[in-house]
Amino acid sequence: MSTKPTVSEHSKLNPQQRDKILLELHQQGLSIREITKALKISRNTVRKTIRGATPTTDTSEGDALQPWQPLMDQLPTLYRQARGNGVRIQELAKEQHGIEISYSTLTRLIRIQGLRHAATKRSGEYHFEPGAEMQHDTSPHPMEIGEKKVMAQCAAAILPVSRYAFIQYYPCFTRFEIKLFLTETVRFFGGATPHCIVDNTSVVVASGSGPEAVMAPEMQAFGEHFGMTFIAHAVGHADRKAHVERLFSYVEKNFIPGRHFEDWHDLNLQAERWCNEIANAKVKRSLGTTPRAAFEQERHALILLPRYLPPVCQIKQRVVDIYGMVHLDTNRYSVPERLVGKSVELHKLAQTVAIIFQGKEVALHPRLIGVRDKRSILKGHHKRPRFNIHRQGPSSEETLLRGYSPLLDRYITVLKRHLPGRGLQGMRRLLQMKQRYPEEAFVAAIERAEKYGLFDLNRLERLILERVRGDFFKPFDEEEW
Fold first, then answer.
1. pTM above 0.90, yes or no
2. 147 band by pLDDT with thresholds 50, 70 and 90
3. CATH architecture of the domain covering 133-301
């Protein structure tokens, strides 16, 4: 008969060694109680270990499941049809196979076959060489900019070896914005990497996905300027760029809360300052140092930048409308009035919009960012229309009328109260009547109109015509005829 092991012999054993000794003691005939005392573990642990090492030894369980063998064969199909709904699986089993089963037994069969919860798989690891790649992605972040709630697109890039990171924000994220961001990123890093890992967004990818993705020619040419190629990870494998994914969580919890942003420019200035002073200056447990210190070693592996970094520019063709404006991204920018109806080029830059006509710059506007239906009008582009000029003093027609007689002066003074504005049209017509009709008829009509308070110029002219007709034409006499 073998002797019982002591606690001291097994107190420092790992679980695998402990389970091996436990099974040996069980094979030697020791009871569960004796094994529990010898190894100082619970009885449940002993039972689970013995049960796990001797499958199919419990014939009673196999006998209990035997009546449900036809259902177990059909259970995977029923599970897919019912989309995992246990009650619906009961109904389908009865309708299609005539099998009635209790819910508790059904869930037991689902667990045995492992249909509901897939087995946890071991996590893999990615190994990176210094300066070999950068990881890039975007994430929408709700925030307030200038007391206005907006959904800002956070663009981030990180070097996976040193964890050196850079972020910026944009109202939207198109190919124009990604070029702006990557240009600022390589300038911030002081170099580029041979590869840039991205997701399967249409901003970079023209067709396909994952390893078979075809990059847009525009983005491919942009990357070649820095010696960088874009690589899209497989669909559903976002962990390929897990470092930049984790960065977004850090940004949402540390950068956004408690900060106020005046505008988009102020937001990006604070974001760059946060990268320098906090994100890249905090000691990382996985690194044992700060990302900035680790980056000093990785910096030498980056691709040197070209001597000249051209500004990111998007060129658009526009025709100046009748208001002397051109449209860009729902906003309007002014041009000199002489270019109305002409075709011009709009050069959209990071902070400005340049308007080119026949190879010459005719206007340079600050770019309207994050707003819609706004106008930018430069001084000197649009002159005020003549009809908007409000002149003061009497018109030239009134000046010619006044001084003729006190009677006419009094009539003009009261007449102007019944005319809009300076009474230009009324003075002009009154002057025409004075110049067109005989003086006596005109003065007599004015005298009568003032007496009866008549200031309708049409009726005044009829009075003049009646007086003229009586002076020049005799009344018709039938007797003389």
1. no
2. confident
3. 2-Layer Sandwich (3.30)
